[in-house]
Structure prediction request, 65 residues.
Amino acid sequence: MNSILISIIMPAYKAQQVIAEAINSVLVQTYPNFELIIIDDFSPDQTVNIVEDYIAKDKRIRLIK
Prediction:
């Protein structure tokens, strides 16, 4: 039964070097009923752009700036 929604909260700041790997590590999990909430603290690098690319591909990902 996959009715329970799991929320994963991922803080991010200057994470452009590792954010894709971190997101992918969540996306490969076998439990499909989750939301990934990424909280960006005004990263001056490309972190937000990378996250937005993932958001366009997977509706379970959200970004809070």
